[in-house]
Structure formats: structure tokens, C-alpha cells
């Protein structure tokens, strides 16, 4: 994802009624676990990892909502 797209997404967060961060294997491939953890701790948004993203954040991390399975 491009830097400008990330900035745009972050700028929309204050206007969201019920924001939720959903992440999966792509976050692991991008090695984004540190950034993801920092974002969650800073903003305090609930997170919902897919089964492939499970383990990127500690299970007891702030706002961790469990795991969602995705079936295609």
C-alpha cells in the first residue's frame, strides 16, 4: 500500500462510527506486526485477525477481538 493511501485511511478513522482493523497474512508478509501493534496501542481500535494473521498480536493485546475465519 502506498504511503498516501495509508494517510488517507488514517484520516478517515475519526469519522468512523465503529472502526475495526481486520488483518491477515498480508500483514505478516509485509512484516507489519510492530507498526500494527503501535497503531492499536496508540489509537485503541479493536482488531480482528483472520486465521492467517493470528499470532501477529498477543492474544491479550488491547482490543483484540479474537479470530475470524475467512472462507472463499
Question: What are the salient characteristics of this protein?
Answer:
single chain; 72 residues; mainly alpha; two-stranded parallel sheet; 3 helices; 2 strands; globular
End-to-end Cα distance, whole Å, is 23 Å
Task: Determine the number of helices (DSSP H or I, runs of at least 4 residues).
Answer: 3
Low-confidence stretches: none
Helix content: 25-40%
Structural class: mainly alpha
- The global form is globular
Q: What's the rounded overall pLDDT mean?
A: 79
Going across the major beta sheet, what is the strand order?
1-2
Q: Count the E strands.
A: 2
Element-level helix/strand string: HEHHE
Give the oligomeric state of the chains in this entry, treating copies of one chain as homo and distinct chains as hetero: single chain
Largest sheet data: 2 strands, parallel
| Beta-strand percent range | 5-15%
Q: What Rg, in angstroms, do the CA atoms define?
A: 12 Å
What report would you give on this structure?
This protein has 72 residues and is mainly α. The protein has a domain at 13-55. The protein has 3 helices and 2 strands. It has helices spanning 3-12, 25-29, 33-43; strands spanning 21-23, 47-49. It has a two-stranded parallel sheet with strand order 1-2. The longest helix is centred in the middle third of the chain and has 11 residues, at 33-43. The chain starts with a helix and ends in a 23-residue tail after the last strand. The relative contact order is 0.19.
